[in-house]
Amino acid sequence: MKFGFWYCKDPDKFKRTRQNREQIIRIIEEVLVALYAELHRHLGGSVVPRILWRYLERSESDLIERFSNYPEFEDFYTRPRNTLDEYLELHTIVEGVQTAEALPYFIYRLMRGAYIFENLAYLELRYTPYLRTNPNLDQSRRIEQMTEIAQIVGRSSRLKEYPIVSSQILCMHSKLPYEVNRAIVDLAAQMPENICAIDLAGGDAYYGERMEEFIELFEYARSLNIKATCHLYETEGHYPELLPFLNRIGHGIQIPLRYPHLLKEVAQRKQCLEVCPTTYLKTGTLQEIRQLKQVFDQCFDAGVDIAICTDNAGLNDVRLPFEYETLLTQDVIGFEELQACQDAAFRHAFAWQYAQRPASLLDRLLKSEAS
């Protein structure tokens, strides 16, 4: 009696083999469908334009009056910008509507899409909690409300029907006062079950005049055993003094492009670059995707890990598998390099507690069945 690649003369043994195979198939279908890890995704920029448009319609928002129809809105929301500053202005649209009441609506749809359309097994959502609080409150009360925001994001991102391992990265912001940024670090320390790290965002061109302040905050986070990443070396910001405080580097593409002498120490610290290909076209940082070939080649040569990410999946009109496909079809990387980046994403994930990525577990199950 033949069954695939197996040959069995014992009917009882064949029956057990078939039952085992069917059980493994069920596990693969129900549990191990998701395969990828996303380390750099902003809560605000992840909202798909159609979902945002429907929310604005239902809530009768004044924002919708700026556009005559949905195609006009989608074009405005997803078209490339000339600079990073212009690109970041789009975040304010979503931040203004992602209130405590609205966050479950947006996060449910975000997690559903991430699981069904992107095969994500792991997702780190980053955002600035202060910018989701009630702007009519004074600063101290808004700081208090940040705890509620983080709790809502935590509850809303844990869905039985879309089983993604998820955690939050709280972003300090280059345009927020010191007191707010320090409170963001404190909040991360108070909620390790929901928050895995801190970040600094808001445009790396603005860090310089407050560098001592940001170094102090990263030192403070380290004293509390909080992991850290930072939007750094994305465009013009050249701040090597921040690098020693980071576990990962948000973007970091200007290191191999303009400051390759730094790659050796990045490799020694075992830091990973969070590279978001489509973003650099949307912000005018790069003119074509093939310019990233130098980034990948130099990092691989220097032993620096890269995790491929989407950054703002909604604003960029892209999903993680599309980023993979673009890099492959444009000959930026090959399949072996893609595999290395996918492995690196799980290896550097702040809240992934398993020794292997899901694809390795699936491979082990299949080998166990064959034996």
From TrEMBL:
<keyword id="KW-0479">Metal-binding</keyword>
<protein>
    <recommendedName>
        <fullName>adenosine deaminase</fullName>
        <ecNumber>3.5.4.4</ecNumber>
    </recommendedName>
</protein>
<dbReference type="InterPro" id="IPR032466">
    <property type="entry name" value="Metal_Hydrolase"/>
</dbReference>
<dbReference type="GO" id="GO:0005829">
    <property type="term" value="C:cytosol"/>
</dbReference>
<dbReference type="GO" id="GO:0006154">
    <property type="term" value="P:adenosine catabolic process"/>
</dbReference>
<keyword id="KW-0862">Zinc</keyword>
<dbReference type="GO" id="GO:0046103">
    <property type="term" value="P:inosine biosynthetic process"/>
</dbReference>
<dbReference type="GO" id="GO:0004000">
    <property type="term" value="F:adenosine deaminase activity"/>
</dbReference>
<keyword id="KW-0378">Hydrolase</keyword>
<dbReference type="Pfam" id="PF00962">
    <property type="entry name" value="A_deaminase"/>
</dbReference>
<feature type="domain" description="Adenosine deaminase">
    <location>
        <begin position="37"/>
        <end position="365"/>
    </location>
</feature>
<comment type="similarity">
    <text>Belongs to the metallo-dependent hydrolases superfamily. Adenosine and AMP deaminases family.</text>
</comment>
<dbReference type="InterPro" id="IPR006330">
    <property type="entry name" value="Ado/ade_deaminase"/>
</dbReference>
<dbReference type="InterPro" id="IPR001365">
    <property type="entry name" value="A_deaminase_dom"/>
</dbReference>
<dbReference type="GO" id="GO:0046872">
    <property type="term" value="F:metal ion binding"/>
</dbReference>
<dbReference type="GO" id="GO:0043103">
    <property type="term" value="P:hypoxanthine salvage"/>
</dbReference>
